Amino acid sequence: MTTATDTISAGHHEAESHGGSYLDRKGVLSWIFTLDHKRIGLMYLGAVSLFFLIAGLLAVAVRYELMTAAPDLVDGNTYNKLFTLHGAIMVFLVIIPSIPASLGNFVLPLMLGAKDVAFPRLNLLSLWIYFFGASFMVYSILDKGLDTGWTFYTPYSTSTSTAVISATTGAFILGFSSILTGLNFIVTIHKMRAPGVTWTRLPLFLWAIYSTSVIQVLATPVLAITLLLLIIERTLGIGIFDPAMGGDPVLFQHFFWFYSHPAVYIMILPGFGVISELVTVHSRKHIFGYKAIALSSLAIAIISFLVWGHHMFVSGQSELASAIFSFLTFAVAVPTAIKVFSWVATLYKGSIHYNTPMCYALVFLFLFTIGGLTGIFLGTLSTDVHLHDTYFVVAHFHYVMMGGTLIAFVGGLFHWWPKMTGKMYSEFAGKLSALLVFIGFNLTFFPQFIMGSQGMPRRYHEYLPQYQTYHLWSSIGSFVLAAGLFIAGGALFFSLFGSRKAEKNPWGGISLEWETTTPPHEHNFHGQPAVNCGPYDFPEIDHTQEKAHA
Amino acid sequence: MNTFLLNAVIAQAAGGANETTWMPVQASTVAADTDWAFYFIYWLCIFFFVLIMAAMGYFMFAYKASPGRKTSPVKGHHGLEIFWSVIPSLLLLGIFWVGFKDWMTLNVPPEDSLEIRVTGKKWSWSYAYPRFGLAGENTLVVPQGQNVKLIMSSQDVLHSFYIPAFRVKRDVIPNRYTVLWFNATKTGKFQVFCTEYCGQDHSRMLSSVVVKTPEEFQDWVDNGGGDPLDPDYGKPQPPVVVGEKAYVQACAACHSVDGTPRVGPSFKGLFGKTEEFADGSSVQVDDNYLRQSIMEPNAKIVKGFAPAMPSFKGQLKDAQVDGLIEYIKTLK
Questions:
Q1: Which residue of B has its CA nearest to A550?
Q2: Which residues of chain B does A373 touch, with a Cβ-Cβ cutoff of 8 Å?
Q3: What are phi and psi of A352, to 5 degrees?
Q4: Is A270 in contact with A405 (CB distance < 8 Å)?
Q5: B203, A461: Cβ pair inside 8 Å?
Q6: Domains, in order of start, for chain B
Q7: Choice among A122-136, A200-214, A488-502, B244-258 with the minimum mean pLDDT
Q8: Which of A516, B11, B174, B195 could form an SS bridge with A243, CB 3.0 to 4.6 Å?
Q9: What is the ipTM of this complex?
């Protein structure tokens, strides 16, 4: 059992007499200048949610346009801006910061038994940089929009008249936020663990955040350099990527994916971490294969740097390079498979509570398994030649990025919401949302696999009539999915004004964040917590069976 | 499992050469191999998906929380963990090999390939056939059963040339040539898409491949190419129109139609005029003189010009020669 041993500190009694919630201070300045990781996490959450809403509505607009084969709602240029902004906002402003910056910021120091992250001021700076970078993105939308796709491929991006410079400057700035947050988390996990929180007692969420942070620190600078070179090319006319000026457009793709493939794991690893927590806590069982899950996160982080070329099998890169990248891609599939098997095995002989977070975790397992398996088709050289840049790819990465990361994010939000806000949401609304999201998601993206393998190219504003049926189902699905997410958002938002107060530990978690008051005190713990067991040694575990299994 | 049996099962699922739920019609030699790989992965994925979901579904049902339920203290099982790491690794290695083997085929155009140049620009494709001196927009015409090698480049941004029925795709890049080859097995019309986003009319950058039998293809070449999907294609044309085309293709470099002498005399006002020759003789220009000048240009050299013209015997067909003569008659 975890214990919060109080070693009396000076501020302890004073704090308790104040009522002890980090939300107590009022006023805008108390938020803008806060050094409290919990408040910073909440502000990230607010911003990420706002951008998720905007980018989600853009996606619905795209699906609405695609209900019929002919262009009807918008013209070609507007359509191109819609899908570009959907992708760019989702990737840079929503998925990358979603779990680490919002849930991670809130939960990480609590799980470690720390008062805050290692560098609270740096943490606040990261938030400010995020807002600064985001404002460039918003400016790009309001200015001329952006029509390059989120990948900014040259020479299109160096020749289009849309707001490429402000958008790439935004992504460049956002990268610093990402790097600084990663750095902060790495140091915090190394140096700020409470007594007894050894590396093997670290909740798996933190192993995932740790692996993510390593990638963020190592890979993001390459994106920064790439975008800077792109800006230099556009403003000064120095040929780096544009063949008209003597550059090489394939070089851009290498640079871009050298960051953006590891970035895929920046996006999904935190999701893995969340699922490891949800699956254990709500089935009251120790995670199956702790070390395998923890180390597979690190393995994925390392291998993820060596597979970028699998985005470029048909780009004209060397055929030998493609073969090597394909081989390494299969290597990254193994640790991912291990995780899925381990999560399912964790359910074995558990005591599964179908709370909203658990429902989302199960939805994740279903969707992510499809997302992972369909990746095999794309890692295989010959089949990728046929499937590359079709809707098969669109479906695959939505199953992974949305069905994986964002579902894990929503599940994690439902899991930690009571701790974050002190309020309990309607379980009915939560479960209904999970059901609608599950149905809507599959309806939206499964038909896209079929139309993709039938040849439907991605990023098409109009399409041949033979794909009509699939597109129609997909659009209908997206409306159901949107309704599900609105209900999820509504359940959380309206709980803030409801009267249902959350218990201190509604799910019976035994990692340290559940030991403190709800919502936590400004300094997290009254005194120094200490730990003498692992994060998944739940009281329901029947230790009398131990010998039989040993 | 017996490899032969496995092949049979997958070939059955792949539906032979016909369209299946997952795959469009197979119309090239590599299509069957790609589809075999696709369905091989597909059935493996179905197997593992069902396995994982069945386990998950059973656990969800069997281990639903009830008051007082105790849970297992199991924290892992080395044997099981090694098993589910090694088995997928081996399967993935096999899948890699299947894809790699076909990748080699896809990337080595046979020596005897017919070379065709493909140019992509915003937002259309054009084709040139160096072996036949032909060029065309919009429609790629290829012979059935022959290896065809496309040498592709772009005039502006990135494009990508994709023929779903052939299962081939390759990016088309400015300032660099990329290569793609195929051998079409079915005659008919097949869709070409641009699959690298290229701006405003990306989704309209469509084209077709028309596969003809070798005989029909030869006819198409003999008739000077053209777009077989054009509604006017193949209709008999007035001789003057045929002649004007032949003029542009064969004569325009040396003979003007506005009276200016180039390497050879201008065609303006030529018909009916009395032409004086280098040997002092002369003749009134008529049909037979024009025909002779095209077939045996050195028989009569017009005074003041060098004997520089090659013979077009065998190069221009009778219909073209007739057309040329009719065209020259119109140039008063």
A1: B74
A2: 45, 48-49
A3: -80, 120
A4: yes
A5: yes
A6: 3-62+75-107 (no CATH), 114-222 (2.60.40.420), 239-330 (1.10.760.10)
A7: B244-258
A8: B174
A9: 0.91
